[in-house]
Amino acid sequence: MKGTYKAVEVSSPGNLRLVERSIPEPGAGQVRIRVEACGICHTDAATVMGVYPGLTLPRVPGHEVVGRIEALGAGVSRWKIGQRVGVGLIAGEDGVCEPCRRGDIVNCQNPVTAGVTVDGGYAEVMIAEARGLASIPDELSSAEAAPLLCAGITTYNALRNAGLRSGDLVAVQGIGGLGHLGVQFARHMGFHTVAIGRGREKEKLAKDLGAHVYIDTATDDAAAVLRRLGGARAILATATSGGAMGPLVSGLSARGKLIVVGVPQDPIQLNAFPLVFGGRSIYGSLTGTPIESEDTLAFSVLENIRPMIETAPLEQAADAYARMMQGKARFRMVLVTKDGAA
Q1: Pair (145, 67) in one structural domain
Q2: pLDDT (tens digit per residue) in 230-260
Q3: Does residue 47 sit in helix, strand or coil?
Q4: Number of domains in the chain
Q5: Coil, helix or strand for 316?
Q6: Residue 341 scores a pLDDT above 90
């Protein structure tokens, strides 16, 4: 077997380069994955630009990883060679910090973070913690499954953990990499689904994805329209614009929730009046655990929910990343290795 593999690493801030590395052996509690597909996420920018706290370079980005196990480290019994598995952003936990001790491993204070604290999936091979793996259903191709390990679980968990009931009015702000999945999940969870976008040309897509109502912010005040509809029990904020998120609070019903899953660089400006008078709230939601990734994948298979993707070979990672950052992807870019299948 060839003793090296290709990887795309961040050698210095803003510089992605293709390199050849020696194939490593997994340590205790680890597996080696032969990567088939890896999604490109906006969060990868923190690694590519070298700004993620605690990051050291060089580093291989990528935290939407799907591949097959080709080697097991000592003590790994749950997984088998040849099994197709996935790795998301939170790829392991320390198990000793206070959040972990309270069962909240997603908020571990010292997590194993794919593409940040350890090398990620912009590569033909990846070492992963066995405790951070999710099983991939046969019904999903590797390229389809990859974005569901971040964009999918982020929107799915945010909605299912929001204390909502079927028939509730739920709005999804933004119809992009996160939002196009959020609309599908909201519809198939039984919510009265409203999509909020900019431009009339997005209306057909929003309706095709499952939205009952489309609000065009180029011509309408989204919060005002939501109030006329009775107010949203929840608004899933996915578009990375703090300026667009803040005003939506007044479109919530009493006790409604603005759930932030897209991370804008500009501040979210809030008016305290609708928060206090009506008991409305705003909070963030971050991915989930490996078993919750499996829940997301299973629900996606059950309800035929799929990400809209564009694929590119690993060797074109820099161009694919640039396409994502420029907002040209529709809607998730996925790197596919020679071992993968689109």
Answers
A1: yes
A2: 999 999 999 989 999 999 999 999 999 999 9
A3: helix
A4: 2
A5: helix
A6: no
The alpha-helical segments, DSSP class H, found in the chain are 44-48, 98-101, 142-147, 153-160, 179-188, 203-209, 222-228, 242-245, 272-276, 290-302, 317-325
CB 52 within 8 A of CB 116: yes
**Cα-flanking dihedrals φ and ψ of residue 319, to 5°?**
-70, -40
Handedness of CA 307, 177, 111, 36 (dihedral sign): positive
Confidence at residue 223, expressed as pLDDT on a 0 to 100 scale: 98
Does 13 share its domain with 111?
yes
Residue of 177, 169, 184, 159 whose CA lies nearest to 262? 177
Q: How long, in residues, is the chain?
A: 342
Going by C-alpha positions, the residue among 26, 38, 40, 117 that lies closest to residue 72 is: 26
Q: Give CA–CA dist 280/316, Å, rounded.
A: 45
218 phi, psi to nearest 5 deg: -70, -25
CATH code of the domain covering residue 53: 3.90.180.10
